[in-house]
Amino acid sequence: MLTRAEDAVRVLAPAKINLALAVGALQPEGYHRVATVMATVSLSDQVILAPSEDDSLAVEGPFAKGLPAGEDNLALKALRLFSDAFGRPQGWDGVALTLHKELPWEAGFGSGSSDAAAVLRGLAFLKGPQGPSTDELLDLAAELGSDVPGLLLGGLVEGLGRGEKVRPLKPPPPLPVVLVAPPFRLSARQVYDVWEERYGPRAGEPQDRREWQTFMEEVRRQSWEDVWPLCFNDLEPAVRSLLPDLDPYLALLENETVLAFGVAGSGPGLYALLEDGAAAGRLAARTRQMGAWAQTGQLLPGHRPPERRRGR
User: Fold this and answer.
1) How far apart are CA 64 and CA 204, in angstroms?
2) pTM for the full model?
3) CB–CB of 218/260 below 8 Å?
4) Known catalytic residues?
């Protein structure tokens, strides 16, 4: 398969954490209403787009094993969706996608959704001024998944509906973050099923919850020292009930001097926000000693633009 490496574009696909996640009633369409604030983190996958004779997808890197590389892969779906709507980059017969997987998947960090968002961003970059608007890209992102629109925007983002109705928020300082992926697997469907069984019958509109409203008041005021103690995740009790072995990891985070910590999305990944980078490094090392994958990064104010590169 012919590719021109000198025309390749690299796009970073950052992890996300949910600083707040309120879950509401199950809708007839089969999804739960949510109100969430997600923040992107400097730890990321890399997505390479290169011209080719045909569309293709290759997956490499530490977390490539077991990841579907066929039509079920969200990055390839993003390529198909964009190409159907707006065509391929000028002069490209096909697009060779390479995902370099540095992030654990099915951990709550949104890596698959972020890869898809990165594909959309890369293709829009290659299209140039004739490419789609941000609103048009967000419409495509919403077709791909609930987290994709927020990860398309990057930085600090509020998401309503099923998460796809997004708006950017003023970002917090670039605080150190520790991401932790314990050696367990858990599907989002399992977590939501347990949540629905326990709390669904009395769930209302998530944005009407006082807990959510108080959190958002402090976010809008940029009063970050008051925001961090208010971080919450409605799914955490369901995650912990399904994975009791997660408790020692959460206990470690709780006993450290952290600003905020908790389950990332539907888990089983965890996050901790700290003030000091050295302390973040020590915390990551301690969780690795317990058998987890753990890395340090920082909160991002937004996306780095795609960049052209030589070589793959």
Assistant:
1) 39
2) 0.94
3) no
4) 16, 147
